[in-house]
Amino acid sequence: MSKAIRIHAHGGPEVLKWEQVPTPQPGPNEALIRHEAVGLNFIDIYFRTGLYKANLPSTLGMEGAGVVLAVGENVQNVAPGDRVAYAGGPLGAYSTERVINAEKLVKLPEGIDTKTAGAMMLQGLTAYFLLHRTFKVQAGQTILVHAAAGGVGLILCQWAKHLGANVIGVVSSEAKAEIARGNGAAHVIVGHTNLAAEVKQITSGAMVPVVYDSVGKDTFNASLDSLAPLGLMVSFGNASGPIPPFDIATLSTKGSLFLTRPGFSTYMSTAQDISTGSTALFSAVLSGALHISVNQSFPLEDAATAHTALEARKTTGSTVLIP
Fold first, then answer.
1. Alpha helices in 195-242 (DSSP H)
2. Is CATH 3.40.50.720 what the domain over 139-261 is classified as, yes or no?
3. What is the mean pLDDT of residues 68-76?
4. DSSP three-state, residue 65
5. What DSSP state is assigned to residue 149?
6. Which UniProt keywords are given for this protein, alphabetically ordered (predicted)?
7. Superfamily of domain 2-122+265-322
8. Rounded to an integer, what distance in angstroms lies between the CA atom of residue 103 and that of residue 29?
């Protein structure tokens, strides 16, 4: 038998239940892994509350790292004993052991431990496609990153700086501003009340070609107002709530802007996508260009406490749950 955090109904952190479950066995093209670290992400809260739909009862969690225990037929990319990590669906990472399609797994290189890997795969691969595919950030550009002291935000700031960009980070407190500055943000704005005006001052009126916004409802309009003509609004999260419907003509009146809502499952839909992104991520970490800040750690059985801290914005960097 194994153990897992499961939900039987949508709601607050109290719906997270620590339960005994049968240990699954790998079928064809699958691998059984023992988790050593599980990543905590805001998308877990979306599934818990019902903003994103899942069949109930459900085991939450989108990323993890550990050791392969067994493999099914036709599996060639991993073998028992390999240290591996993964990110993306299906749900099920909040568990001591799980079965997953082996094509989702990547072997961990020497120099990256499972705790770091469990904290960085979803956030790191998200940062990879945001910077390299959704909008190809170029040296000399000034970009805007919301939640710059969060898990994805810190990676975005560091990686964009490594690419030669000038990063404006947006945070919610002075304490988080210091963290963002220490991780690649050349300028930091606390709060978003006067965001566009402050961006205008920093850029000498040019504004920015891209905004990476994971906050959602509270920052959407301010983000649009911070863009240069023909700029791209990248809305990739809803930490403050879903963005209400708006008139698409607004994009025209604000400078013929572009708007995209990228999804991890689309950008990481194939084994090749996962391999390419993971290789770039591991290389950036091993070279020192990226430092993964695992600032919080909770026992997996205390996932409710971890969710409470994340929702209250009391966390910085990455958080892991340890089985």
1. 195-202, 220-225
2. yes
3. 96
4. strand
5. T
6. NADP, Oxidoreductase
7. Medium-chain alcohol dehydrogenases, catalytic domain (3.90.180.10)
8. 8
State the Cα–Cα distance between residues 41 and 198, nearest whole angstrom. Answer: 29
Q: Is 53 exposed, middle or buried (0-12, 13-18, 19+ CB in 10 A)?
A: exposed
pLDDT band at 14 (very low <50, low <70, confident <90, very high): very high
What is the phi/psi pair of residue 197, to 5°? -65, -40
DSSP 240: T
**Model pTM?**
0.91
Residue 18 tokens, joined: 């620590």
Tokens 């905590």, located at residue: 40
Q: Which two tokens stand for residue 169?
A: 């980070």
Chain mean position to CA 274: 14
**114 in Cβ contact with 93 (< 8 Å):** no
Domain segments of the chain: what residues?
2-122+265-322, 139-261
Q: Tell me, what's the pLDDT at 100?
A: 97
Residue corresponding to tokens 């935000």: 153
The Cα angle at residue 29 between residues 26 and 31, in degrees rounded to 5: 40
Contact 130, 190 (CB under 8 A): no
Give the chain's length: 323
CA distances, 271 to each of 86, 119, 124, 278, 283 (Å): 11, 20, 16, 10, 18
In tens, the pLDDT along 82-112 reads 999 999 979 999 999 999 999 999 999 999 9
Find, among 173, 146, 178, 145, the residue nearest to 160 by Cα. 145
- How far apart are alpha carbons 243 and 313 in whole angstroms? 19
